[in-house]
Write a structure and sequence with these properties.
The complex is a heterodimer of chains A (about 325) and B (about 300).
Chain A (H helix, E strand, L loop, with lengths): L1 H4 L7 H11 L1 H24 L12 H4 L6 H8 L2 H20 L1 H12 L3 H12 L6 H12 L5 H8 L11 H28 L4 H9 L4 H25 L7 H7 L5 H4 L2 H10 L6 H30 L5
Chain B lengths: L2 H6 L3 H32 L3 H5 L13 H7 L2 H33 L6 H13 L4 H10 L17 H12 L3 H9 L4 H12 L1 H17 L2 H6 L8 H18 L5 H47 L1
The chains are: A mainly alpha (about 325), B mainly alpha (about 300).
Chain lengths: ~325, ~300
């Protein structure tokens, strides 16, 4: 069909589009609703981003509010909270990435390596399960386990004659708890993708390595690991794209006045400004959010470009 | 794979490595499993056993007091019913819209598919953010309505990509044969493609229902009325907000607190179980499907 249409581009583009619309009207009809959804719920907010450069007044709406240029951005960069929230956000993401990136890979390699099939299946079943627990329940469990009065962790510490530790109200512990609880919840789930790549590794490569006298450990390093590196790079690119958009929910739930100095991140700061303040400044919050998205998107493009140039893998 | 070849040629070093490998896996298993087992055991213990720290592994002084407390709590039950509604209605809409988007985008003869795909995919990497979205929701009049828990999350582009890839991998002869038989695009989708796509539909339904069941942020932002609140908001109040109060109280008589707090501590464990059990029971059955789903989406997406 396409071959016929291409050589003689006789009828105008408009006419051809019209013909296509008539011939494939059911497909257009199907995509209409999803397309409307994307435009309304994703592109309208992008249009609304202009309030970051305006002084938004609800009665005047997005378009009617007066322009103020970069005022809100300047306010954010010079605000006393700026350094704190940026530092906390970046620290938490990088800490999370440094630990959270290699562990699922190691888990997948170990799972792939074991010869006990039933054991492997049970480890998989159990380690995937926490992925389905909600953030609220996860944080609730942490409060239960770590409670200074009734928590099992502090009871254990008490057995050794130490004083209870206020884990959830500690700025030092916050970061470790945040990152390691995430490992507990997600390592199994994140390993699925690597496991499925490992299952496609050619048996011949292992055979050849065996013939060359490679030990099991060497084969993991030189056959299995290289097989998952392209996937790992893609996932790493995707993750770095979210470096500044740390999940709001868990930080918010774990946050209290006592760990604020290490738990205040961009998203919680923004939430407080707009929804927990008596005088919400939507424009200022939108500017912070915009700054955030721009940084993310730029980093994503840079890392993707680097991966394309040096690793021949890229998202687009 | 020819396991025999590997086994036959195992050296001592290999066997040692395998042993270390399995011990490592076993430790991971314990670390993940213990908190889960502890919550289950605590939830079936007596209030006093829970607060005095007698529970370590198995239930102590078994009782159903915690579960009775959960089921007689009105706000928990309202939240549960709301979450059930949001999950079922939301997932149905999600699945329908995802198929409606993925099918045309999978068809090679659908001309604007690349443009539309780009418009869709861009939203995965860039968005308006919380405030402009909030203003939109407000302007649409969705604040504090049931719709707000369903409409803003009506579609996930990631799931469209997974489904589209699945559709593209069905043999193209099927479509050609159906077209020769005079089958319309819609008819082909319903009578030929969908019956072939049960695994991917199961995976999507699971992904979406997990999202709805655990949704918390939208409810926090957009809902005010108690009778609309989903389970997760109720959970937050009981598990997180109250916990802060308890742990912050420094100079309270422990025994008095224990008596008063006994049941409410126990209730928390039972509540965790009640809130998580539907998904945890459901997922092992379609586990084999979603491994495929994750793979398709991540590799070819």
């Amino acid at each position: 069909m396409e071959a016929k249409a291409r050589p003689h581009s006789g009828p105008s583009l408009l006419k051809r589009m019209k013909q296509d619309l008539v011939a494939r009207y059911q497909l257009y009809l199907l995509i209409l609703l999803p397309f409307t959804y994307i435009v309304v719920f994703h592109y309208f907010p992008m249009y609304g981003l202009q309030i970051a450069f305006k002084d938004f007044v609800a009665t005047q709406g997005i378009t009617g509010s007066p322009w103020v240029g970069f005022k809100h951005f300047e306010n954010f960069f010079t605000s006393p909270s700026f350094e704190l929230v940026i530092r906390n956000t970046i620290f938490l993401t990088i800490y999370g990435l440094l630990i959270g990136f290699p562990i699922p890979i190691i888990l997948a390699l170990a799972l792939n390596n074991t010869l006990r099939t039933k054991f492997k299946k049970s480890v998989q079943l159990i380690t995937y399960a926490p992925h389905f627990i909600s953030v609220v329940v996860l944080v609730g469990m942490m409060y239960q386990f770590l409670s200074p009065k009734f928590g099992i962790v502090n009871q254990l510490i008490g057995l050794f004659g130490h004083d209870p530790i206020m884990f959830m109200g500690s700025e030092q512990w916050f970061r470790h708890l945040y990152v390691w609880s995430d490992i507990w919840q997600q390592m199994g789930w994140s390993s699925i993708i690597y496991l499925s790549v490992l299952s496609t590794v050619d048996g011949d490569q292992h055979e050849a390595a065996i013939v060359d006298g490679a030990s099991r450990f060497r084969r993991v390093l030189h056959v299995d690991l290289p097989a998952i590196i392209p996937t790992a790079v893609i996932l790493l690119i995707l993750n770095t794209g979210y470096i500044m958009s740390l999940g709001f929910e868990k930080v918010y739930l774990m946050q209290n006045t006592m760990n604020l100095s290490s738990s205040e991140v961009i998203s919680t700061y923004l939430y407080k400004l707009s929804f927990a303040s008596s005088l919400p400044n939507y424009s200022y919050s939108a500017a912070i959010g915009f700054f955030n998205s721009i940084i993310n998107f730029t980093i994503l493009c840079i890392v993707n470009g680097l991966a394309k140039r040096y690793g021949n893998t890229s998202l687009w | 794979m020819s396991m025999n070849v590997y086994n036959r040629r195992m050296t001592r070093q290999d066997r040692l490595f395998l042993l270390a490998n399995d011990i490592f896996l076993f430790l991971i298993l314990l670390v993940v499993l213990y908190p889960l087992v502890y919550v289950v055991s605590a939830s079936f213990s007596s209030p006093s056993a829970v607060v005095t720290g007698k529970v370590w592994l198995f239930p102590v002084e078994p009782s159903l007091a915690g579960y009775k407390a959960v089921f007689s709590n009105k706000s928990i039950m309202t939240g549960y019913a709301n979450t059930l509604f949001y999950t079922i209605a939301g997932t149905m809409l999600n699945v329908i819209l995802t198929i409606a988007a993925a099918y045309p985008l999978a068809r090679r003869d659908f001309k604007p598919r690349n443009v539309i795909m780009m418009i869709f995919a861009f939203t995965m990497f860039f968005g308006g953010g919380i405030i402009p979205t909030y203003i939109l929701i407000k302007n649409l009049g969705l604040i504090d309505t049931r719709w707000v828990m369903i409409l803003p999350q009506a579609l996930s582009v990631f799931n469209i990509i997974i489904t589209r890839t699945f559709f593209q991998n069905t043999p193209s002869e099927l479509l050609e044969a159906s077209q020769i038989d005079g089958c319309s695009d819609m008819r082909y989708l319903i009578s030929v493609l969908l019956p072939l796509s049960k695994p991917i539909i199961a995976v999507m339904a699971l992904f979406y229902s997990v999202m709805h069941w655990n949704a918390f942020f939208d409810a926090l932002l957009y809902l005010n009325s108690d009778n609309l609140r989903p389970l997760q908001l109720v959970l937050r109040e009981i598990l997180v907000v109250n916990s802060i109060d308890v742990s912050m109280m420094q100079n309270v008589n422990i025994e008095e607190l224990a008596a008063r707090q006994g049941l409410s501590e126990l209730l928390k464990y039972s509540l965790i179980i009640i809130a998580s059990v539907p998904l945890l029971l459901f997922y092992p059955f379609i586990q084999r499907f979603f491994v495929k789903g994750v793979m398709i989406g991540a590799i070819k997406g």
